[in-house]
Every structure is written in C-alpha cells, then in structure tokens.
Amino acid sequence: xxxxxxxxxxxxxxxxxxxxxxxxxxxxxxxxxxxxxxxxxxxxxxxxxxxxxxxxxxxxxxxxxxxxxxxxxxxxxxxxxxxxxxxxxxxxxxxxxxxxxxxxxxxxxxxxxxxxxxxxxxxxxxxxxxxxxxxxxxxxxxxxxxxxxxxxxxxxxxxxxxxxxxxxxxxxxxxxxxxx
Length: 180
Hints:
Elements lengths: L3 H11 L3 H5 L16 H31 L6 H30 L5 H27 L10 H32 L1
C-alpha cells in the first residue's frame, strides 16, 4: 500500500528541482557564489544586502501605515502577511551577511573586516527590534496608553543606530580597500 507520504516523496524525486522547493536535503550543497570573489566584491555585496534591508524596512513601514489607515476594522491579516514577507527578506539577507562574515573571518583571514560585518549585523538586529517595538507601541489597541517620551527615545535610537550602520559601512569599505 502506498502512503500519502511515500507518494509525495516519489513525486518530489520525479520532478527536477522539486526537492529544493520543499526543503528536502540535497546530495550536494551548492557552491557559495562569492567564495573566490575579491574583497571589494564582498564589500559591494554587503552594500547590496544593506540596500535590500532598506527596501524591507520601507515595506515594513508602509505596511504598518496601511494597517493604521485601515480603520475602523484594521486589516491585520494584510499587515501580518507584510511582516511575514519582510521577515523572510531580513532572514535571507542575514544568512548571506553571516556567510560573508564567516568567509572573512576564516579563509580570507580578515578579522577586522569580519568584525565590521558582525557589528553591522548586530546594529541591524537592534534597529529591527527597535522599529518593531515602535510599531507595537503605535498599535491602535495601545494608542490610549501611548508614552510619547518613550516613543521619542525609541525613534532617536533608530536614528542613532542608522548613523552607526553608515559609519560601519564606511569603515568596512575603507578597511577593505586598505587590505587589497
């Protein structure tokens, strides 16, 4: 007797590329495309990933504003979907940033550059957590309890974090040029 699970597995193995789509393990892990890239290319990729993160933050902000404007019913399912999509974008960018960090710390023997990338990752985590807290505090259910002083502090923290991110990106670019 063929079980549903066995039928699904056989269907997956019959379709090229289907195993990757459903998360089945591959026999061989694909090569990381940046493995032999020059340092400048790795730094450029970090900047591209930062641009992707910036777009994701804009989508998150736009989604939150749409949620707030959808009164009186507040379209939470749409906002939840936006948060899910943005979370996936952040996770993908973070995985790649961490891969660059590992490459710099390990095979490239560039601990200074690796520390810049690690610092960047930590700053982005702080920024995301702070933005999420700001959005939560601005939720309609909590508007009566709004603490404007705390919200102002959090907004300032986001600004300072973004300034620190810019500085780290500049340091990364400068130190990479010096290392080449």
